[in-house]
Amino acid sequence: MASRRLPADTWNGPRYKIVVVGDGGVGKSALTIQYFQRMFAEYHDPTIEDSYMQNKEIDGQWCILDVLDTAGQDEFSVMREQYMRRGQGFIIVFSVTDPQSFKQVRRFHTQILRAKDCESYPMILAGNKIDLVHQRIITEEQGQELAKELMVCFIYQGLYVFCNRTVWVFRLASYL
């Protein structure tokens, strides 16, 4: 028997709003496109805001994943608090090839907690671009230490690492 997909506006099951944040150029859009379209985008225009939805089975229950891919550039920071208030879970992405993006993780973490007015919230720290072996600056251990300090989960991945490409969304959605 074939399964039937319901339009998102008639769905009465769980819907998880996940927001992907991080500095510009860390691979937020590439990760999101890889997850939803199962393809690597060689080139992508800088994002202002893109939204992706998909029905998925997580922990034996069907749900709608509503993932918001956000702008990393500072000129769009005014929009940040608005989508941080709407999000139910967050993925903070940094590039292991860019120490500045790693330093900015704390700023994103603080902004999320401030927008949510709480001391902790479901988040994953994702170290991206590990497949760029000769350009790696931030180690897995540094990422793990920061994640432990911020009390969030940690994933160290690259787009070409097939086994990890969907783990980040499933792991976060299972916490919500």
From TrEMBL:
InterPro entries: P-loop_NTPase, Small_GTP-bd, Small_GTPase, Small_GTPase_Ras-type
Biological-process GO terms, alphabetical: signal transduction
Annotated keywords: GTP-binding, Nucleotide-binding
Entry GO MF terms: GTP binding; GTPase activity
One term under GO cellular component: membrane
PROSITE patterns given in the database record: RAB, RAS
Keyword Calcium: no
This protein's name: Ras protein m ras
Origin species: Fasciolopsis buskii
